[in-house]
């Protein structure tokens, strides 16, 4: 398998180069040159464990790592770090919840970042050299990325988050990791500002090469790839329990990384009848899928901060495929967007952008009402991100093909939302309770590209 850029200006590269490149050198996103179809293999995959299934899927996209090594990497990543398993499907009321928060930081991002940490270490061990990871986090990516690479030889991580705009627990989780290779930066701006700084520095090719800058955000293809696996796991599990051949999935969405993995799974032949994209009040994507207009609004702060995003970096991958892999058209549209803050595509005869992808917005009130309902009716506590997905799925109706809602975080990470919804402190987790005691380290940085650059240069020396 070879990889190309959405902007069409890099020669095809192998998987390991794609992982190390992060953002493509031409400013685009790295995508596989083709998408394998596995429809005929699905039956033989139904009884596989998570690591076994991961190996079958990931090997299709990784042809430059010997299979035995790849298998070992996957087994290490999806072993004891996840308790009891990586992806756990449970029936709750009239739908299924796919719990993806059984990893070390209690959010679904661990699934991709445990593997990515191991991949980085493996690649550096074989090729030599160092890696300086530059990341931007709206909360959960940061901790999952930091836990993925803490203490690893040859790797430093610089993680930017919007100062005072992540939850107290998210802050404790990232800033309490005191390993020497972990550098937290609180940027005086929004998450989009952090992402902007990251893109500017990673897009400065001289700087990127000289300082060996790599990416852990979902611009990194390996993250999307790792996430494809749990769509297969969940759909195969629910097909088995319900006997239904087609399944729908609802995905709480911010940067479009998670749902994009579902979209790839669908292209690979997995029987998904509908992907339901759920946003909070930051609904740029929901508006796009209902109108064909992608236009930036202002960032709202919500109870689901990991989804408080206006410019979704992975959207470019979807758009590229949607345009029939036409880089020239994509470049034109991205240029429009850069200049005017909006772009638009024609919508189909059926009046929608994508007949397999329905989008909706879950408001703050719907989020709170959904947490309350699931707690009182089913004794199940949803985190506020998951609740947005469940609310949008419910508003579309649960009759018909079974619906799986992706549970992206453990509710204990967002106790204030749970308290607001239920009036009680129902969301505890021993790992979270431990955090408050721990010392922290973090530096505040101006909302400025040069200020961020200086921190990196000064730290690396
Ligand atoms: C990151 C995150 C999301 C959004 O996922 P994207 O891949 O950015 O769309 C949703 N919920 C939680 C808890 C997250 O951490």
Describe the structure.
A six-stranded mixed beta sheet has the order 3-4-14-9-10-13, with helices on both faces. A five-stranded parallel beta sheet has the order 8-5-6-7-15, with helices on both faces. A two-stranded antiparallel ribbon has the order 1-2. It has 461 residues and is an alpha/beta fold. The longest helix has 22 residues, at 221-242. The chain is built from 19 helices and 15 strands. The mean pLDDT is 95. The chain is globular, with a radius of gyration of 21 Å. It binds pyridoxal-5'-phosphate. Pyridoxal-5'-phosphate binds at residues 107, 109, 140, 218, 252-258, 306-307, 385, 408-409.
Task: Give the structure's gist in a few sentences.
The chain is of the alpha/beta class and 461 residues long.
